[in-house]
Specification:
Length: about 300
């Protein structure tokens, strides 16, 4: 029983890309409008209007749905960053979140129905409506989330296995001997490292935490500079940005781990792991394979 419930604590991808959020919310709006148009629940079936006017009524449901979903993504997620930490996002949180969004959409459409004049609002009807919305939504949401988690996990583990097989081969060329520069905005502080020393850098607001190896010891240096600026200063094929918060030296990556959430990069010198954003997964995979490509 414990193993069954442990799946809810497994990692799950959090949708945090604005363009994909917009696309996803638009599809939800269209789906809800079509669903209500076809099944006409909650007293909608009694609405007597010409077809040309009905189109605008159901388009209104779709618009309300779109706006509520967009509000959840752009306002609620931003207001509670600790809860919506993509690295700590789990299957359980995804189920709770989607169910919550569906219930908010239900409330929005209930008030819209009342505005149109074919659905009343009272304390009893409100609780009744929300109870059945929850019961109807939670099981499909749970099932679809678990299915999607298994699909993503299977795909990512297969890809990780292929990448790790490539990493077993030595580097096709030794790390460049160029010197990397990590300087502060005012130029007063500068950390100069060889490509073989640098592991990764992590964004920390207006600072960047640079992690490197010196005489076999892992060290850190906090530089007053944005990660984007340091990325521009150190333009080389080995140095990439797999995630918006990280800059990584791919030549120092020794292994890749996978989950339904995506990939994580591992190093031989430290237990720190670096996430790979979904939009960058293909590029990182190709670069790692190319770095360890066996000639001939």
């Amino acid at each position: 029983m414990k193993n069954i419930f442990s799946v809810f604590s497994e990692l799950y991808p959090l949708q945090d890309e604005p363009k994909l959020q917009l696309k996803h919310n638009s599809l939800i709006g269209v789906f809800v409008a079509l669903f209500l148009f076809i099944f006409k629940p909650f007293g909608i079936s009694g609405l007597q209007l010409p077809f040309s006017e009905l189109i605008f009524v159901f388009a209104g449901y779709g618009l309300i749905t779109f706006l509520v979903a967009l509000f959840c993504d752009r306002v609620i997620k931003v207001a509670f960053p600790q809860f919506f930490d993509e690295q700590l996002w789990t299957v359980g949180k995804q189920i709770i979140w989607v169910t919550f969004v569906i219930m908010l959409i239900g409330i929005g459409n209930l008030f819209y129905s009342n505005l149109l004049g074919f659905s009343g609002i009272s304390g009893t009807s409100f609780l009744y409506f929300q109870f059945y919305t929850f019961v109807i939504a939670v099981f499909p949401v749970m099932l679809l989330t678990l299915i999607n988690r298994m699909r993503l996990l299977k795909h990512n583990l297969k890809t990780v296995k292929s990448i790790n097989h490539s990493l077993e081969a030595p580097l096709s060329a030794p790390p460049e001997q160029m010197i990397l520069s990590f300087s502060s905005d005012n130029g007063k502080d500068e950390l100069r490292l060889s490509c073989d020393q640098f592991l990764f850098a992590e964004s920390a607001d207006n600072y960047t935490d640079v992690v490197y190896v010196e005489n076999g010891i892992v060290k850190r240096a906090l530089i007053r500079s944005t990660l984007k600026r340091l990325e521009t200063l150190n333009s080389t094929p080995c140095i990439v940005r797999p995630h918006r918060a990280y800059l990584v030296n791919l030549s120092k990556v020794t292994k890749v781990a996978g989950s339904s959430q995506g990939y994580r990069l591992l190093f031989g010198e430290t237990e720190d792991t670096i996430p790979v954003a979904r939009r960058n997964a293909s590029e990182v995979r190709e670069l790692l394979t190319a770095l360890h490509k066996v000639a001939g």
